[in-house]
Amino acid sequence: MSDKPKIVAGLALFVALVAFPVWYGLGGEGEVAAPELEYPADADACVEATAYMTANHMDLLNRWRNAVVREGQREYQASSGERYVMSLTGTCLDCHTSRDEFCTKCHDYADVSPKCWDCHIAPEGN
Amino acid sequence: MDESRRSFLKETGWAALGLGCGFPLLNTACSSSSAQGETPSQTGAQRQWAMVVDIQKCMDEEVRNACIAACHRAHNVPHIPDPEDDVKWIWSEEYQDVFPDQAHEHTALAIRHAPILILCNHCTNPPCVRVCPTQATWKRDEDGIVMMDMHRCIGCRYCIAACPYGSRSFNWRDPRDFIERDADGEYYSDFPTRTKGVVEKCNFCAERLREGLQPACVEAVNQVDGGAGALVFGDLGEPGSEVSRILADRFTICRRVELGTGPNVYYIV
Predict the structure, then answer these.
(1) CB contacts < 8 Å between A and B, how many?
(2) How far apart are CA A10 and CA A19, in angstroms?
(3) Which residues 6+ apart lie within 8 Å of B95 measured at CB?
(4) Which residue of A44, B127, B172, B202 pairs with B162 in a disulfide if CB–CB is 3.0 to 4.6 A?
(5) Does residue B153 form part of some domain?
(6) Nearest alpha carbon to residue A102 among A47, A57, A36, A56
(7) Are B135 and B152 in contact (CB under 8 A)?
C-alpha cells in the first residue's frame, strides 16, 4: 500500500514518455511554411509544365540519366515539341542557377536527400 | 486398376524421355543465338575503338606525365598518396609486370624495369562485364567501349577481381579531397567526380569522342616535343584508320593475349 505514490509516479512518467511524439508536436512552432523557391528570372517555362515538374522531376531525371548513360541519347523532345539537351548541370542548372536556393531548399523541407551532388559538380556560383 | 497404373507409368516414362532429349536441344539453340549477339565486333563491320602505344616514344618521362596529367584533369581523377587507395586511369608499370609472359630470365635489366603506359584494354570479351551483378559496367555495342555507370555500381568489386590487367580502382574514400583544383578552388573539368564505394576506370574519353574529339591523353602527347604518335587512337573496324594501318605494318603486342579477353590496347615494341 505504501508503494502507491511510487507506482503512480512511475506510470505517469511512462505515459509521458510514450506520448512524447504527441505533446512534442503540440508544443512546437506549428506548421512549417513551405519553402519559397526562387524561379529563374530569364526563362518563362521549364522543359515540361511546372505542375508536372514539381511532381515528377525525379522520374524525368532518372529517364534522362538512363537515356544519356545507357543509350547514348542526348536530346529530349518535350511534350511542347521543343528539344533540349539532357543534362542536369548543363540544362537544369542553366536556368535554376542556384542549387542551394532551388534543389536543396525544397529537399530539406521534404526531408529527402538525393545523391546527385555527391558526384555531379554544380556549376560555378553554387 | 493395374492396367491404368501400368499405362500411366509408361506414359510418364515416355514424357520424361522426351523432356530429357528436348532440353539440351533448346539450350544449344538459345546459347548459339546469344553467342552470335555477343560478338558482332568480330565481323569487322562494327566500330571498335582501339589505342596503339609506342613503347619507345613513351620512354620519355615528359610524354608519360603529359598524358597522365591531361587524363586526370579531364576526368577529375584523384591523386591519393597511399598507393593502396589510389585511383588509376592511365599510369605506368614496369615492363616485367606489364608483360609477365614476355619477360624472361635473360631480359636486360633496363628493359625489365622500363616504364610502360597502361590503361583499360576495353576488351572484346571483357571479363569485368561478365561478372558485374548490376550491369553497371557493360560493353557498348556501337563502339566497343567498356563503360561504367556509376549510378548502378554497388561497389562489390567483382570486376576488380575479374580484370586480369588491374585496370580498375575502388574508391576506398571520398575522392573529392584529393582532386586537383585551380587557384580559385574549382575543378578543372565539369566531369562528375566519383563517390566513396564505387569502382572506376578509363572510359576511352567517351564524353570527348561524342563531341568528335580525340581522347585527352592522345591530344596531350601530340603537343609534347617528340611525343607525336606516342599514342594513336582510332577505329579498328575501319581498315583505313591509322590504328588499323599501324597494326598491319608494325610489330605489335598485347597484354596477356592467351587469356582470350581480346585487349584493344596495342603496343609497338
Answers:
(1) 26
(2) 14
(3) B102, B103, B107, B111, B112, B113, B114, B115, B116
(4) B127
(5) yes
(6) A36
(7) yes
The total number of residues written for chain A in this structure: 126
* Domain region containing B18: 3-29+39-268
CB–CB contact A72 B210 (8 Å): yes
Please indicate, yes or no, if residue B76 is contained in any of the structural domains. Answer: yes
Interatomic CA distance for residues B178 and B88, integer angstroms: 13
- Tell me which chain B residues have a C-beta less than 8 angstroms from the C-beta of A74: 210
Using the CB atoms, write b or e for B120-132: b if 16+ within 10 Å. Answer: bbbbbbbbbbebb
* Contacts of residue B10, Cβ cutoff 8 Å, sequence gap at least 6: none
Q: ipTM value, please give it.
A: 0.77
pLDDT for B218 beyond 80: yes
Contact A72 B140 (CB under 8 A): yes
Cβ neighbour number for residue B45 with a 10 Å cutoff: 9
Residue pair B69/B216 in contact by the 8 Å Cβ criterion: no
CATH classification at residue B241: 3.30.70.20
State residue B88's pLDDT score: 96
DSSP state of B89: S
Total domains present in chain B: 1
In tens, the pLDDT along B219-248 reads: 999 999 999 999 999 999 999 999 999 999
Residue B34 maps to a domain: no
Q: Which of B114, B112, B265 is nearest to B201 (CA)?
A: B265
Specify if B152 maps to a domain.
Answer: yes
CA distance A113 to A110: 9
**What percent of chain A clears pLDDT 90, i.e. is strictly above it?**
63
DSSP 3-state assignment of B54?
A: strand
Please name the residue that has the C-alpha cell 602505344.
B53
Quote the distance between the C-alpha of residue B169 and its chain's center. 12
Nearest chain B residue (CA) to A126: B186
Q: What does the pLDDT look like over B183-200, one tens digit per residue?
A: 988 999 999 999 999 999
Q: How far is CA B63 from CA A42, B30, B55, B91, B228, in A?
A: 47, 49, 11, 12, 9
Using a CB-CB cut-off of 8 Å, the residues of chain A touching B192 are 119-121
Residue type, A75: E
